[in-house]
Amino acid sequence: MKKLLTFLTWRSWGLIRYNSIWQNVAALFYIGLARRWFGLDYIYDVALFLVFSLTGTAYGYLVNDLADVELDRRAGKTNVFHEMSRAKAVLVVMVVFGVMVVCGLPFIRRLGFLPLWIAWFLAATFYSLPPVRLKERGALGLAATILAQQPIPAAMAFAALGHLRAWGALAFVAYITLRGVSSDVGHQMRDREQDEAAGATTFAARRGHRVIARIYGLSLELETLVLGIVLLVLLIDLPAVAIGAWLVSPMWPLIIAYLALLPFTLGCAWMRLERGEWVDPYDESPAGPPRDLLHL
């Protein structure tokens, strides 16, 4: 039980945080409400997909830790397999992979699911594993980790639940893609100095802080704008609520709040990063970022 808890709480409950579970649940709720699907069959599919998604997240990060045990030890990074033999580590990864496959099989006949699953598997596996090891191939590695963590899993959710060919799916996947860019660019920006010290040739290590900070700032701003498009889709697609003689969308309070806050937030991250300040809203580590450093 103690070892199981170690995996569940690894990287400050990374299994939950890196899966973006609330983001996934929001998309699944949207599908159910937009299609008016409230039956037990849909609830079963949602529950099964969430288990599939969580085990997929675990597989991706465990493969990464398995490939990086020695590199992380040299860089002083945490690694869930530091105190485990290689054979046991491989067994853990294979068990998690097996659970993921069992949970994913019921969806393979749904439109688009199987090719998306294959693409995700290739990106998640060979991001870290040699001889391909995409993470050390600059922009290609950055693209692989973004695709494996955010847009492909989101598209798989829409495919698994039969809502892939819809404008709502496109809006959600676009927003989630930008969240993925922000998350992974920020991750490389945080780890750049440690990666350079360990000899890892990530995109950030190759291009330097200035380039990665500009990409991060741009993705944060685009993420904010595309969130507005997602809210508009929800306004159109979700059923209205009867209030007296009026039918009112429950999205109006969120849209009003979004429009009220937009002038105070739009452009702030870009300008602060351009000034050399450390802006990193995606850093959820207990230690936090080195906010006192300019990193120019």
CATH topology: Farnesyl Diphosphate Synthase
CATH architecture term: Orthogonal Bundle
- Taking the alpha carbons of the first and last residues, their distance comes to 45 Å
- What spatial order of strands do you see in the largest sheet? 1-2
Number of domains: 1
CATH class (first level) name = Mainly Alpha
Let me know the largest β-sheet. Answer: 2 strands, antiparallel
- Given as residue ranges, the uncertain stretches (5+ residues, pLDDT < 50) are 289-296
Helix content: 55-70%
Overall pLDDT: 84
Q: In percent terms, what proportion of residues is strand?
A: under 5%
Looking at the structure, what is the overall shape?
Answer: flat
Number of helices, counting only DSSP H or I runs of 4 residues or more: 14
Number of beta-strand segments: 2
Rg from alpha-carbon coordinates: 20 Å
> Could you spell the SSE succession in H and E letters?
HHHHHHHHHHHHEEHH
Based on secondary structure, the structural category is: mainly alpha
